[in-house]
Amino acid sequence: MKSLFLHLFLLAIALTMILPFAYMVSTSLLIRYSESSIGFEWQELTFENYRLILRSYNFLRYFGNSSVVVTVTCILNALVSSMAGYGFAKKSFPLRNVIFFILLITLMIPSQVIMVPLYLMMSRARLLNTYFALVMPLITPFGTFLMRQFIQELPDELIQAAVIDGARESAIFARIVLPMSRSALVALTIFTFITAWNSFLWPLIATTSDSMRTIILGLSVLKGNYSTNYGLVMAGAALTFLPPFIVYLLLQKRFVEGVTLSGIKG
Questions:
Q1: How far is residue 37's CA from residue 230's CA, in Å, rounded to a whole number?
Q2: Tens digits of residue pLDDT in 114-123
Q3: What long-range pairs does 119-123 form, CB within 8 A, spacing at least 24?
């Protein structure tokens, strides 16, 4: 009986979490100018909102911008973080722990605090409205921390054996460290993907050109000045939600492994 009540309780929680997504999808299939209209008839369902977004708005451009930013950010963050994590975990150099501690301190600084100086730096370097300005602030010390925690648990004997065999540092890193760190890299990639895809405040500040807007910023153009088709807004939200959801579904097993192994050890 306890097991039955537990399963019913968990089912109720799952349904509670699913309901907002069901409401988003159902509303996206309707033409609605009132946010209080939640009922619908089956004959009212239409894909017109999706067709309107793809034809009349610059959504494909926004989607392309987000795809470029996310792809480049994930690759650079994985590369930089794994190299730095390897250095902090397996190499001895002066002030190693002090430097790592300073990196951890920067994680405590709210991103909003550095928005103004970051904007001034990008403006003076004439990098606003560029992919560089959108990508670089997303590469944070969190990735270094995650990779360092994971790589620290890799057997030192493997690296020492490779050194005895005459392997270079680049070969050790590429052929031993990276393959054994796949779970952590997948976890880092998912974190980076979701952060970059859902980033709103910095792209809003760093871009003034419509051609450089990301898909999150593109949602704002779906809201009218005097009236809003909430079905259109929900259709945009559904399209925005879909890519990170698919990525997580494909990589969820590796994601759980990476978070578990990186988080509880070190």
A1: 10
A2: 999 999 999 9
A3: 119/205, 119/206, 122/206
Q: What is the per-residue burial (b if ≥16 Cβ within 10 Å, else e) of 48-77? A: ebbebbeeeeebebbbebbeebbebbbebb
Answer whether 237's CB lies under 8 Å from 222's CB.
no
pLDDT in tens, 51-99: 988 887 888 899 999 999 999 999 999 999 999 999 999 988 899 999 9
Please count the structural domains in the chain. 1
**Helices 230-263, 48-56: inter-axial angle, 10-degree rounding:** 90
Which is it for the CA torsion 210, 216, 217, 220, positive or negative? positive
Tell me if 47 is assigned to some domain: no
Task: Supply 209's token pair.
Answer: 């050109």
Q: Angle at CA 194, nearest 5°, toward 191 and 197?
A: 140
Print the domain residue range for 115: 58-263
Tokens coding 173: 């890193």
What is the Cα–Cα distance from 227 to 222, expressed in whole angstroms? 10
Residue 165 lies in a domain: yes
Task: Give the Å distances, CA to CA, from 49 to 15, 59, 109, 126.
Answer: 26, 12, 41, 38
CATH number at residue 232: 1.10.3720.10
Asked if residue 28 is part of any domain, the answer here is no
* Cα separation values, 179 from 87, 153, 175, 255, Å: 16, 14, 6, 15
The answer to whether residue 45 is domain-embedded is no
